[in-house]
Task: structure prediction
Amino acid sequence: MTLVEQTQRPRPLARRGLRHWALLLLAGFAVALFPWTVYLAYALPSRHLTPHWSIAWAGFDLMMAAGAIVTVVALLRGSRYLAIAASVTGTFLVSDAWFDLITSRPGSELFESSVFAAFGELPMAALCLWLAVDAERLCFETGAYLERRRARRAG
Result:
């Protein structure tokens, strides 16, 4: 066995060790977030003005649009990255609905945010998360559909 073959071959023990440490680190992070969240709930001011509010929201919406485009392209190409793209886009949509609702003023602003969340962001998030769960089958079926369509156009 050559040196190249030895370095390319997966090392299960190293992966297992890495997985173990990743699990411990992530679990520790999750546990540490609980007291940190309680601290923030009491320590942060109830009102904060920021000079870049519009840029933050516009940037977030652009990331959401990019995620949706990547999800569509991944679906059309039957990409193995569809589940990742759809998961990220779904997460962006849920986060957007959450922050829109939480940061809205009572009245028409809250009503508008609620309508967008109920009929836009959350259904689209559910669609994206369904795409992520069913990615393998959808990629196969989309590829077959596109092939039939090309064949009809050509014939």
The mean pLDDT is 88. The first helix runs from residue 3 to 8. The helical segments are 3-8, 12-43, 53-77, 82-103, 108-133, 135-154. The two ends are 52 Å apart (CA to CA).
